[in-house]
Design brief:
- By secondary structure, the protein is mainly α.
- It is 87% helix and 0% strand.
- The protein contains three helices and no strands.
- Helix 2 runs antiparallel to helix 3.
- The radius of gyration is 35 Å and the shape is rod-shaped.
Length: 111
């Protein structure tokens, strides 16, 4: 029967650990580094999808406004009137200029 004392077992494990310690740590950190690089690539891809692409599409969305000059003139005049006299009635004109004015311009462009 093979019997090993606890101290002998510890010495054997320590000698095995010393022999493989450098190689194991190098391999471990190499694999962790590869994993972190893959994770970083996926994270950057997700950032590109969630942040960059919507910003790129924003330029097309702002160019859609039909009859921009008339819409802007109505909104600016309502804002100037509210700025000169900040009452609830003038604020209602600002809301109307933005919300209803948009609907009028859209219907004028699209029929």
């Amino acid at each position: 029967m093979l019997t090993i004392e606890w101290e002998e077992l510890q010495n054997i494990l320590q000698s095995i650990g010393k022999a493989f310690k450098g190689k194991f740590l190098h391999f471990f950190f190499q694999q962790v580094g590869k994993l972190l690089l893959r994770l970083l690539r996926k994270l950057l891809g997700l950032i590109h999808i969630l942040v960059i692409l919507p910003l790129a599409n924003m330029w097309w969305a702002t160019n859609y406004q039909p009859n921009v000059d008339a819409y802007r003139a109505t909104a600016v005049s309502a804002l100037n009137a509210y700025n000169a006299d900040p009452t609830d009635a003038n604020w209602a004109n600002v809301v109307t200029a933005f919300v209803d004015g948009w609907a009028v311009q859209y219907n004028a462009a699209n029929g």
